[in-house]
Design goal:
By secondary structure, the protein is mainly α. The protein has a single domain, classed as Amino acid/polyamine transporter I. Helices cover about 70% and strands about 0% of the residues. It contains 18 helices and no strands. The longest helix is centred in the C-terminal third of the chain and has 34 residues. The radius of gyration is 22 Å and the shape is globular. The relative contact order is 0.20.
Length: about 475
């Protein structure tokens, strides 16, 4: 980054980054979506771990070591394939959070029903209540993150801590419930083999991929990390192991206490806790766990708010976005314009999807759009891993961290194929969609509503900047 450009501060240590990644990666609230297929959900988590999460880890470790730049995945894809492809991937990486963050806030709205007990019992299926509370929470989290890492990192740390405590508690309750009443589902080899011939079951692999994204966030905020070349790999390792273990344990505990056919999408974990806790005489524990689950969702939303806002900031430095995106807050030194724009866009889509949809369909539409936009940058990233490893002389980065080229090629190929499959099956409506036509229409329109403007914005700003300076946009950025 040239000296005339805004500079971010290095404030995140190893522990901060580890909690930040865990908060971003582990969304326990999405486990019920996968668990609804029964014991085969455990196989889906393992398949996602082997075919997507591990290749992602290889890509992030190698590319973050070679190119430790603020903006992470946007910078890697831009250097590998040129500014237009870099812009589209960066746009999708940022835009998907406009959908994803509202889905997390929908969870908190559902948990509030449990926290309020009888006072809020009938509000969980009310789209106006859900949308209203989601808007309030969205702007509270946006404001906290605009105040910088000094405040924001504690939101993520508390959220990650709530994740560990929640998983431990629900696992303990599940064990006690099983000892007194038996397993709610039968765990046999046939029951654990997913029905790969059913598209609605295979569609859940896209949800698994979505819940394994986020390792690259450490590189997205790379200029704000102390000693990133050493800190990022260690945080990725710890956060990766914790993520897989937490998902498997939470899913198993849920399936042990609730029949698969009865698991709800928005409150499946609390549903299981409520049933199991009542059976063993500790029904009072539902409210504390609902609060902890809210902290998990809040930490998850906060982590993605903080990380994704850095991408439009860097795009603003490259002049593909209006210069306002590259501004830092005079007091908090944060990309506040990106936060405000993202909050406004998320607010619009919360309201848009609340009109004419049930709460369940509202959630699934947001989830499907999120999956498609999220996975597009990963398609680029896995190919970028292969390109950059094969032609390192084209790039002026640091030495790589993976000693074997073949591992990078295998990880890139496997990760790309799994990601492409995830994009395709995300258009398959899952079981329980009330209005398939409405689902497909809003999903397709939601994706196009972000992809088409991306191309128009890129072309307009690239031509405008070149006309003013005589140079292509992005050419002034030496390093970030």
């Amino acid at each position: 980054m040239s000296k005339a450009e805004p500079h971010l501060r290095r404030v995140l240590g190893r522990a901060d980054l580890t909690f930040f990644l865990i908060a971003a990666l582990v969304n326990l609230n999405s486990a019920p979506v996968v668990a609804g297929i029964g014991p085969g959900a455990l196989v889906f988590w393992l398949a996602g771990f082997l075919l997507f999460f591990l290749p992602q880890a290889v890509a992030v470790l190698e590319l973050s070591a070679r190119l430790p730049q603020e903006g992470g995945i946007y910078q890697w894809n831009k250097l590998a394939f040129g500014p237009s492809h870099g812009f589209v991937s960066g746009w999708c990486y940022w835009a998907n959070n406009i959908f994803y963050i509202p889905t997390l806030l929908l969870y908190i709205s559902g948990f509030a029903v449990f926290i309020g007990a009888d006072l809020t019992a009938g509000l969980g299926d009310n789209p106006l209540y859900v949308a209203g509370l989601s808007l309030v929470l969205l702007w509270i989290l946006t404001g906290l993150n605009m105040m910088g890492w000094g405040v924001g990192k504690w939101v993520q740390t508390i959220g990650a801590s709530g994740t560990f405590i929640t998983t431990t508690l629900i696992a303990g309750i599940a064990v006690a419930a099983v000892l007194t009443g038996g397993m709610a589902n039968t765990f046999t080899l046939p029951s654990m083999l997913p029905r790969f011939t059913e598209w609605k079951s295979l569609a859940l692999l896209s949800v698994v991929c979505l819940n394994f994204v986020g390792l690259e966030l450490g590189s997205v905020v790379g200029e704000e990390i102390k000693d990133p070349r050493r800190t990022i790999p260690r945080a990725v390792l710890v956060a990766g192991i914790a993520t897989v273990g937490l998902y498997l344990l939470a899913t198993f505990a849920m399936l042990a206490t609730v029949p698969a056919a009865d698991i709800g999408v928005l409150a499946g974990i609390l549903q299981g806790v409520q049933r199991a806790a009542g059976n063993i005489g500790v029904a009072w524990i539902v409210i504390p766990i609902a609060i902890l689950m809210s902290l998990n969702a809040g930490g998850n939303a906060s982590a993605w708010l903080a990380g994704s806002a850095r991408v439009p900031f860097v795009i603003g430095l490259d002049r593909y976005f209006p210069a306002a995106f590259a501004r830092l807050h005079p007091k908090y030194n944060t990309p506040y314009v990106a936060f405000i724009v993202q909050g406004a866009a998320s607010s619009f889509f919360i309201v848009f999807n609340a009109v004419g949809s049930t709460v369940h369909d509202m959630y699934m539409i947001l989830m499907g759009t999120t999956i498609v936009l999220t996975l597009i940058p990963y398609l680029y990233m896995f190919l970028a891993l292969i390109v950059i490893r094969r032609e390192p002389e084209r790039f002026s980065g640091e030495p790589g961290i993976i000693p074997w080229s073949w591992l990078c090629y295998v990880a890139g190929a496997v990760g790309f194929l799994m990601t492409a499959f995830g994009v395709i099956v995300s258009f398959v409506p899952s079981a329980g969609i009330d209005d398939v036509g409405n689902f497909e229409l809003k999903l397709v329109l939601g994706v196009l509503a972000f992809l088409v403007p991306a191309l128009l914005v890129y072309r307009w700003h690239a031509r405008r900047y070149a006309g003013v300076t005589g140079q292509p946009a992005g050419s002034h950025v030496e390093s970030v």
